[in-house]
Amino acid sequence: MVGGHLPRGSDPRIIEIDTARVMSRVERHFAVIDIGSNSIRLVVYDDLSRAPFPRFNEKSFCALGAAIGDDGMLSQAAMDRAVDGIERFHAIATAMRVATIDVIATEATRRAKNGRALIDAIRARTGLETRLLTGEEEATYAAHGVISGFFQPLGLVGDFGGGSLEIAQLLGDRVGPRLVSMPIGAIPVRAMMAEGMDVAKARIDAILRDNLAGQAVESIFYAIGGGWR
Q1: In this structure, how many other beta carbons lie within 10 angstroms of the beta carbon of residue 147?
Q2: Angle, CA of 99, 108 and 226, to the nearest 5°
Q3: Do 140 and 175 contact (CB within 8 A), yes or no?
Q4: What are phi and psi of 180, to 5 degrees?
Q5: pLDDT higher at 199 or 218
Q6: Phi, psi for 24 (deg, rounded to 5)
Q7: Which residues contact 220 (CB under 8 A, 6 or more apart)?
Q8: How far apart (Å, rounded) are the C-alpha atoms in residues 178 and 157?
Q9: Which residues have C-beta within 8 Å of that of residue 26, sequence separation ≥ 6?
Q10: How many angstroms separate the CA atoms of 183 and 115, rounded?
Q11: H or E stretch including 204?
């Protein structure tokens, strides 16, 4: 507060903290199993909050995206590896007395013609239900992650994973209307590069042009996901 006035760009909302409720809260662990195109990851968090603390973090490299054949089907060997890994993660989460386990699947499962067969196999082996995210949902969750970790972020977030690149607009404490998912993750880009750098560049430029043409240039770009690294 400066001279009785709020600084420009500040949020006038009043935040009230119920100390008694906070102090009496019972800790409940939550877990997420993320079935990506390159790896499957388990993260166990101490509790639900804006910035939860990860108590356990491990991933299993199953390369589902690379296991999709010319017929558009995931190989049985890849699905078996994935289910074995998820069964192990389920056992770890159960031993840690996790209250809730959320299983999400992204580009590789979304793109494979038999992706639902993988989801059915996970349910049959572990009893866990898997949520298959759309490309826009994946972009939205990536944006929420940045909003949780930064104060009033403005710009674009790019989540570059094994199978896809999601772009979302950040408008302070909310996600903007510009959401897009493109099939240019690490695995498909590697396949393009095998045909030559010029071929890969031309294809990637065309995908970006078709999906991002006409969008305003933002001053800040938040690069998240293993693909950038």
Answers
A1: 21
A2: 75
A3: yes
A4: -150, 145
A5: 199
A6: -90, 0
A7: 153, 154, 155, 156
A8: 11
A9: none
A10: 16
A11: helix 197-212
How do residues 44-99 score in pLDDT, each as one tens digit? 998 887 778 899 999 999 999 999 999 999 999 999 999 999 999 999 999 999 98
Go through 18-38 and write b for each residue having 16 or more CB atoms within 10 A of its CB, e for each that does not: eeeeeeeeeeebbbbbbbbbb
CA distance 149 to 222: 11
As a whole number of angstroms, the distance between CA 163 and CA 65 comes to 6
The token duo for 23 is 């102090």
Q: How many residues are there in the chain?
A: 229
User: Using CA atoms, how far apart are residues 121 and 118, in angstroms rounded to an integer?
Assistant: 5
Q: What are phi and psi of 70, to 5 degrees?
A: -60, -20
Amino acid at 195: E
Whole-model pTM over 0.70: yes
- Does residue 110 contact residue 185 with C-beta atoms inside 8 Å? no
Tell how far CA 134 is from the center of its chain.
Answer: 11
Distance of CA 130 to the CA centre of its chain: 14
Look at the block and give the residue holding tokens 């690490």: 186
